[in-house]
Design goal:
By secondary structure, this protein is an alpha/beta fold. It has 8 helices and 12 strands. It binds zinc ion.
Length: 264
């Protein structure tokens, strides 16, 4: 391992000297080359972590198999290709969905993760590249900012699996409308307050139940409480500059028999 001011480089090599072919599943022991992969991992103490992994490329010697050569993989940790570990990618995906792509990139930079907003967009797109399968009868729909205040998309999650299943361009409801036409099994839709989504759902799935999501109910409640407080409380509330002086003055007043309350 090499440690520098802002980075850690960890050198790794597989202990195994055989691997199962990705196509036929037979164990192979003859490799024809090795190469070095550089894979970014979660940071340690805000230092960027790069794994330099010596990877073996094996021959498949099974005559009945179409695969000539294949690279070893490291399962869920690194995967067969890619420039970052699966756990780093999972973290970035979660962070981006909770914020937005540009915000996530800025937080990553502070943490020691090297990534651009465009790469985060690619990670989000990749999460819905899996083979499509029918989703359950309940979905969640919300908008998501690639760039806050500028570029938005619509994310659809399957409530049964809690997994994002689709990322659609824009948030005007047009792409959602087309998606709903292909997914008539949907009976319940949790959504935000966007009228465009409500209209698309009502038009395409008039029988479906539309449910306000908890985030937006909280948002509405807080807004109503703020409005109520604005009416009830004065515009300015005086706070003493030095509460200690005020307390000692009150104590003196008490000793002197003066009954004066402190306003705070
Ligand atoms: Zn094979």
């Amino acid at each position: 391992m090499v440690e520098e001011e802002r980075s850690l480089t960890i050198y790794m090599k597989s202990q195994k000297h055989s691997h199962t072919c990705i196509n036929c599943g037979q164990e192979m022991k003859v490799y024809h080359a090795t190469y070095e992969r550089t894979v970014q991992d979660l940071p340690i103490f805000q230092k960027n972590v790069a794994l330099k992994v010596i990877t073996y490329d094996y021959y498949c010697l099974n005559d009945g198999c179409d695969t000539m050569t294949f690279a070893e993989d490291y399962g869920r940790f690194i995967g067969r290709s890619g420039r970052m570990t699966c756990r780093l990618e999972d973290f970035i995906r979660t962070l981006a969905l909770e914020t937005n792509c540009e915000g996530a990139a800025a937080i990553c930079k502070e943490m020691g993760i090297r990534i651009s907003g465009d790469t985060i967009i690619r990670i989000l797109r990749k999460m819905t590249d899996k083979p499509s399968h029918p989703c359950s009868d309940a979905i969640g729909v919300d908008d998501f900012a690639y760039r806050k205040g500028q570029t938005y998309c619509t994310v659809i999650c399957d409530v049964a699996t809690r997994e994002p299943i689709e990322v659609l361009d824009g948030r005007d409801g047009n792409e959602l409308r087309e998606w709903l036409k292909r997914n008539k099994q949907v009976k319940k839709v949790t959504r935000d307050r966007a009228g465009a989504y409500a209209k698309a759902i009502s038009d395409e799935l008039p029988e479906a139940m539309q449910i306000a999501d908890r985030f937006h109910l909280h948002h509405n409640l807080l807004k109503a409480v703020k409005e109520a407080l604005k009416h009830e409380l004065p515009n300015n509330i005086a706070i003493p500059n030095n509460p200690v002086d005020q307390l000692s003055k009150a104590s003196d007043d008490k000793k002197n028999g003066t009954r004066e309350s402190i306003k705070s």
